[in-house]
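Entry type: protein chain
Record version: 2
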Amino acid sequence: MGHSEATCAAGFGATQWAAMFTGIVEETGKVVAFTRQAQAWRLQIEASAALRGVASGDSIAVNGCCLTVIQSDARHLFFDVLEETRRLTNFSALQPGAAVNLERSLRFDGKMGGHFVTGHIDGLGTIEIFEPRGADHYLRVRAPAGNGRYLIHKGSIAIDGISLTVAEVDGDSFAVWLIPHTCTVTNLRERRAGQLVNLEFDLLGKYVEKLLNLRAP
């Protein structure tokens, strides 16, 4: 039995299994259409690598948000997106032609890069600075208030589904450094200061926080 888009993307409800990702983006797809249907939003994405071996019911991370494939053809993936998911992610800003990061769910018979990513978005971050510095790019993002507790120097963070290493932490703001390759193969090449990005904090930190809270008197 598969999982619903709601449980995968927004973290609501319960499922019999959960997809996992690595945060290593396979390609950037292109939004063809994102339209309101009777029961959900229909997202159509043009893709290539993410189409290999895909079947209805498979999980794919789109900008780091786990979605369920409802249909595919030789060039496109189709997803149903709940209004709640659209509201809580940067999907609300998607327009035809926009680049989106795509990653198929993790297979445990291959190489593991990045870090464990669930595809459940924790919140929206705002880009404060994004600029070239030497050969690399410097990206500083402000996370939602209070979420700085999940950020540690040299820890992991998923930004629009990209596994990155935290280089600086200042309260709820953090910075990462990007090599040219990352900017080239992901949708960060289109990002600008003031735009919103999907954030998923390191799973380990969230588990540790809950265990410590349970032990507190």
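Comment: Confidence is low (pLDDT under 50) at residues 1-7, 9-17.
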